[in-house]
Write a sequence for this structure.
């Protein structure tokens, strides 16, 4: 029964220390400002590939934390990612997380314009908010649409581009990263095929926890 | 714009065919009855490690599909996994997916007995339903509790044991697999550290889609 009585905070501390040790053993030295994000993604996936495939535009973590501090609106491309974002931490920061994928209006819009619901929901996000945080863990079409919208002037506060998959995924991530660099939009992108709703949520949470900790260093957000 | 107009069904078909080709290139030949589950997990994670680390008790897929066909109740250990289970497919089969983790009653129960909410929610699942399908993508404590409950006579219809992590995770999965084998409870378990809510949902969906397809071979469930 003992193992059923351990505290989640203790488990997390031990896990993070195991991750640090194993990164060291692999000869991977993370820049301190990126470490909280990379370590949380590895914590979520048990996959050390993310130490190699996560890319950050200049000051992306700093600017991401800043965005999380001021009543952020996060829009995800799956309800699964939305579920994974820490509600208690968001609440502390006066923020919200939305997903439009299941909305009949978005399905209708996608059908009418012969596109995907993910595209329609990114359009809705950029129509509803001036500088949303956009967390894409599933649909490469969402990233391609974002690239177009940024070319037309849209400026999200942060783009998290981590769809997973085998078709159009790799290219969509290369394109969003290039567009974000060009337009100085902060971005965190998992290059290659890997990613997912869980990774999108983990990156949001890493930034949210850091944002909440700098507001109140004694507090700690738990999902 | 072209890539924004591709159909999800076409993308999935292409993805599955890429996965088949790459499995072959790796010299991995999946038993046909296991292939839909393994391929869907790889589709969800882009991680071929799952072709090696997924374990199945005898006839687990067949019995899992059978359980999904008759108004299944799936109980997950995260709201994220619950979000990821295909609602349209569940609806067709007259089933439901529940998660007790955010219920005040479960938090209270966990606090009173000095255990985790995951343990309390597994207890609630086994109290509320005679043969639930239990999908654990996060908490090793849930699997340890399930092992105890099975020793005391509980018989879930199926156990999906795929928590992710660095502390107690590997051991909890070895123990649940051994217990399921001993008590002839169908189980699908990801050995080692890897897993997650996305993997738990993907396994549920693979079984749900197969169940729905045998009822109506022209239909196809989409998340």
């Amino acid at each position: 029964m003992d193992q059923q009585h351990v505290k989640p905070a203790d488990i997390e501390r031990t896990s993070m220390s195991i991750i640090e040790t194993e990164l060291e053993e692999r000869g991977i030295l993370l820049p301190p400002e990126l470490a909280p994000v990379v370590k949380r993604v590895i914590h979520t996936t048990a996959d050390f590939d993310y130490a190699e495939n996560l890319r950050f535009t200049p000051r992306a973590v700093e600017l991401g934390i800043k965005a999380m501090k001021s009543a952020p609106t996060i829009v995800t491309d799956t309800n699964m990612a939305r579920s994974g974002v820490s509600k208690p931490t968001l609440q502390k920061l006066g923020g919200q997380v939305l997903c439009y994928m299941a909305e009949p209006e978005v399905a209708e819009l996608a059908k009418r314009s012969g596109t995907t619901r993910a595209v329609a929901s990114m359009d809705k996000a950029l129509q509803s908010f001036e500088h949303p945080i956009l967390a894409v863990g599933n649909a490469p079409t969402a990233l391609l649409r974002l690239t177009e919208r940024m070319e037309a002037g849209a400026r999200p506060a942060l783009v998290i581009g981590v769809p997973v998959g085998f078709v159009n995924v790799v290219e969509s991530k290369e394109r969003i990263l290039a567009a974000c660099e060009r337009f100085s939009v902060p971005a965190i992108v998992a290059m290659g095929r890997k990613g997912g709703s869980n990774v999108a949520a983990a990156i949001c949470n890493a930034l949210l926890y850091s944002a909440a900790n700098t507001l109140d260093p004694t507090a700690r957000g738990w999902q």
The CA atoms of residues 14 and 20 of chain A lie 10 Å apart.
